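Work Package 3 (structural annotation) set out to generate three-dimensional models for the target panel prioritized at the project kickoff. During this period the team completed the workflow that converts sequence records into discrete structure tokens, so that structures can be stored uniformly alongside our sequence database. As a representative example, we reproduce one entry of 190 residues exactly as it appears in the project archive.
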Amino acid sequence: MADVKRISTPFSDEVVSSLRSGDKVLISGCLYTARDAAHKRLDDLIRQGKELPFDLQGQVVYYVGPSPAKPGQMIGSAGPTTSSRMDAYAPALIARGLKGMIGKGGRSAEVIRAMVQYHACYFGAVGGAAALLARTIREVEMVAYEDLGTEAIRRLRVDDFPAIVINDVLGNDLYVEGVRAYRQKAAKIG
């Protein structure tokens, strides 16, 4: 990947603030997996004033429910799921220190506002490349909610996980910018 930024978790405000919508990144360090059911449980804990099963400070959540591992593998395919399904829960997690989220698809205005306010960003991962993304995973550890199966919270140690910054701390949105650039280019041609 040309012009790629290498970044490591946990993220500091400085790292997150240096990223811009459209930046290509390779992420190394720990990512936490969580999807709808796990987010609902985390939200319930927050509403009850209880401690979460892991410290959110500087962390990144990958919206993935990895498929079961085949014999000899530590994890199965691990592709992103649709991020908007977590939009109801994301602002509360961002306010408690979450610095990054990885998934696919756009985010709500409320989530983007929380990213701007608390200095967090959202990364897109390539859907349909689940087996390739799984190759960046070096270790897997169960953290919470094992009863949820593939939707349990796991800690993944990754090396050079490829992603692109979709939403940055300035509120920029690659999906909006991309459509605008396309329309400008089409207007010049047409």
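The radius of gyration is 16 Å.
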